[in-house]
Design goal:
309 residues; alpha/beta; 8-stranded mixed beta sheet; binds alpha-D-ribofuranose; binds calcium ion
Length: 309
């Protein structure tokens, strides 16, 4: 399995990279960094540091978009820390980002290997939208796209109706949702009920080794934020679940298909992910996405822990 990861590490992005890196059958062909949880120079530097931590040195990391296509950027240090990793220090990277942009790296790799590379997108979708501009045939060159983003039938997180990744670049998300990818959406519908429980976090603390110890420290910071939301010391596993659905699709136990759009002009709903849930959407509608609604949570958490042992 060959995977390109577009991300904004970010604590849960880091845990998603850990999931991928632990699987010998997964080749991470490239990583695109994007603004979101922090500025793109920080997320790119974090990607380099995390690939070294999780035993995947040498993966090309490309710096992507520093801001959304249209609106001004809004970062999330309050959730992921000033350094994007819960203020946990990792060794400075020994490698530098490649000269290509994230969009250029993605387009070159999928042109070289048409239909072979899966894309995991767990940050704002700006890099993918730019890549579509460079290569309009991108959906046909990518094998499968798994996106963490959106809130379809549940409340948002950054606002009443909007989820952070989509809200961070609504125009980019609308371009991606309408492009015709074979697309799985891992939205808040499933990620807000797939959580690292207090017991799981405690079990992780017992796992020896630097990877587990650093990841546990990242999650300590992240769990503090989510304690304020859940009232219990646990945290939503947004990006790691998206990685797991990509690598282990058997974890999905329920989903539905619907064309997805993004509200671009609503005063209260700009950035909202709108699924057409009618039995028969308009015939000329866009290719439906698969919206994941149930997963084998215990199995996922077990695989996630195994990835850190
Ligand atoms: O809404 C959650 C998403 O926004 C996750 O990808 C998290 O890392 C942030 O990017
Ligand atoms: Ca992310």
């Amino acid at each position: 399995m060959r995977v390109f990861v577009d991300c904004d590490p970010g604590i849960d992005d880091a845990v998603a990279l850990a999931y991928l890196a632990a699987r010998p059958e997964v080749e991470i062909v490239g990583v695109g960094a994007v603004f979101g949880n922090n500025s793109v120079d920080v997320t790119a530097d974090n990607a380099l540091r995390l690939l070294a931590l999780y035993g995947r040195p040498g993966v090309p990391v490309a710096v992507g978009a520093a801001r959304p296509l249209v609106q001004a950027p809004r970062l999330a240090e309050h959730v992921h820390g000033d350094n994007g990793l819960g203020d946990v220090e990792l060794p400075a990277p020994s490698e530098k980002p490649v000269a290509e942009s994230a969009a250029e790296l993605l387009v070159r790799l999928v042109r070289e290997s048409p239909g072979e590379i899966d894309v995991l997108a767990v940050g704002p979708l700006t890099n993918l939208a730019i890549a579509l501009g460079l290569e309009p045939e991108l959906p046909g060159l990518v094998r499968r796209l798994v996106v963490m983003g959106g809130a379809v039938r549940v409340p948002g997180n950054v606002a009443s109706h909007t989820e952070a990744n989509i809200n961070n670049d609504p125009e980019a998300a609308e371009a991606v949702f309408g492009a015709g990818f074979d697309l799985d959406l891992i939205a808040l519908d499933i990620t807000m009920k797939t959580v690292a429980t207090p017991e799981w976090l405690a079990e992780l603390k017992e796992v020896p080794g630097e990877r587990a110890e650093r990841t546990s420290a990242f999650l300590d910071f992240y769990a503090e934020f989510y304690t304020g939301i859940f009232g219990v010391r646990q945290c939503a596993m947004h990006d790691p679940l998206a990685a797991a659905v990509l690598v282990d699709p058997h974890l999905v136990t329920e989903s539905f298909e619907a064309p997805l759009r993004v509200e671009l002009s609503g005063r209260l709903t700009r950035g909202m992910t709108v699924a057409d849930l009618r039995q028969r959407p308009a015939r000329d509608d866009r290719r439906p996405a698969r919206v994941i609604t149930e997963v084998a949570e215990a199995a996922f958490l077990g695989l996630m822990l195994d990835a850190l042992r």
